[in-house]
Amino acid sequence: MTTTYLNLIDGQPVPASTGLTVDVIDPADGERFATLPRSTAADVDAAVAAARRAFHGPWGRMTATERGRVLTRLSQLITQHHAELAELESRDAGKPIQQARVDITACARYFEYYGGAADKLHGETIPYAAGSTVMALRVPHGVTGHIIPWNYPAQIYGRSVGGALAAGNACVVKPAEDACLTPLRISALALDAGLPPGALNIVCGLGIEAGAALAAHPGINHISFTGSTVTGTAVAQAAAVNHVPVTLELGGKAPQILFADADLDAALPVVVNAIVQNAGQTCSAGSRVLIERGIYDQVLAKLKARFEALRTGPGAGAPDCGPLINRKQLERVQGKLDSARAAGAEVVARAQLLAEAPKTGFYFPPALLAGVPLDHEVAQDEVFGPVLAAFAFDGEDEAAQLANGTPYGLTAAVWTRDGGRALRMAHRIEAGQVFINNYGAGGGIELPFGGMKHSGYGREKALEGLKSFTTLKTIAISHG
Ligand code: NDP
Q1: pLDDT tens for residues 159-197?
Q2: Which residues, including other chains, have CB under 8 Å from residue 338's CB and lie 6 or more apart?
Q3: I need a labelling partner for 235 at 20 to 30 A (CA). Which of 128, 223, 266, 328 fits?
Q4: How much is the pTM?
Q5: CA atoms within 13 A on the CB side of 386
Q6: In the chain, what are the domains?
Q7: pLDDT tens per residue, range 28-83
Q8: How far apart are CA 254 and CA 414, in angstroms?
């Protein structure tokens, strides 16, 4: 039986104005199990108008403390519905159920964090001319647009919408067509938590239709986008026409740097998890492992054993690795692996595919590669699948050169027992986050997160993320 999901506009569940729908496919077996509205510019218009009314109406009139209480109640409701939401996230996005549970916990935590922060965001007073008082107020942008990808729908929705609402904005969200269901369900819970209708609107559909209409909408005052570099560029160009600020989170090519003195027992499980988590479909996936030459063979042998023990299968069975999101992504990842092999790379290890994995599902057992040419796309660009490429280096200079030798700069990890070296490397690596002797792919609600270079600009998560959903208004008073 297929379920019919609807948009949420002005607090009401509504179909697309055209009545058209998009199929929702279960990545575990390739079968359709629901439909979504295929929204167009007209639906985006209606959502932006509803958000504007809420911003100038009941939502805009709430105090910061009242807003914070609504978000805190939403966090509690997410926790109460944790099992239901985790199952929905696992089925919709193909995630191993244990990963989906972590994601729902993180989503609840974003609303808890930003709910608590809502009335602690202060402006400043500024010393100025004699006989004057100047204050810089932090005010919301107004109506914010949120374009959410399919890899962490609940988490990215939480970090983006949580911050925007806490700051007092009204939101219009375009989730990815492949993973809309938890954002829709949580937005319904937000109404139960006391969020006024129109403060949070969800418009489902295709990126090139509903997403493009949202990015170009003149009634939007800020856009938060997470996704590919190409689409991020298109979103920023569309927003530029309306002079709208954008936060772009565009992925990475994160290196895990293992020096010969590293604690390998601590490092290797983390290195494997950093690429296998969410089937490698993580912007901060640790997709390159840089190994000091003296321990290269030893580390590769240990990683091989770990990869060969990994189980790939349907998310509901709690495997190590679930299916990829859709057939296109499966073909894209397979194409990149084939291309790397043709360029001389060796597949050192491949994980197992469980017998119960349906043939029609989108499974790609994790792969460990060596000998990938440094200029090949698998060494340079996101694979967005569970493919780890290993490289050898000699000393800190070469490690830093390799680490920085891609267009991206999102996250990195350094593994060493030498504290001075760890800090020298952390300063040299061009990335928004550097972890030393640990790695937090996708985690860290309290930690500012965002990229350098082609990984994007602006920061999400943490109080920095809350600030990016505000702008400054300066009031200068002359009083003699
Ligand atoms: P996209 O960047 O195309 O999708 C991200 C979001 O943007 C989705 O909500 C999508 O909607 C929407 N979108 C698509 N086209 C437009 C548009 N013209 N205007 C506005 N919004 C749009 O990523 P893909 O799904 O195509 O994945 C391709 C690659 O992108 C991956 O292999 C990976 O490398 C990278 N990626 C990176 C992510 C990250 O976390 N940094 C997340 C997702 C992808 P819809 O899905 O409905 O088309």
Answers
A1: 999 999 999 999 999 999 999 999 999 999 999 999 999
A2: none
A3: 328
A4: 0.97
A5: 29
A6: 3-250+456-476 (3.40.605.10), 255-445 (3.40.309.10)
A7: 999 999 999 999 999 999 999 999 999 999 999 999 999 999 999 999 999 999 99
A8: 11
